[in-house]
User: What shape does this take?
Amino acid sequence: MTRSLSKGPYVDERVLNKVLGKKPGETGVIKTWIRRCDIAPEMVGFTFGIYNGKTHIEVLLTEDMVGHKLGEFSPTRKFVRHGGKMQKEIDQKKKQSEIDAAKTAKATVDTKKK
Assistant: This one.
């Protein structure tokens, strides 16, 4: 459920204080644990380290991100992949075809040098 328009966007004061009065190029990564904070126009150009529960993910804020939450750009769950026996076979075939392609490319380069 979205926030009421009469209340306005929620921008945490601590995050805003880290940004105000500074230039985007001269500050490094601004670490934050506040994922629920809305992105304000003043934050555009800064790089934020948004905590995902394990590490801080660096995100450069752009104009397209204004109005979204910081947490939207730092996923908390990691999708490994669907797998099993069939997926393993597919991956092995793909890897083998890449190796074969690299060998043929190297062979053509070696014959051109001679």
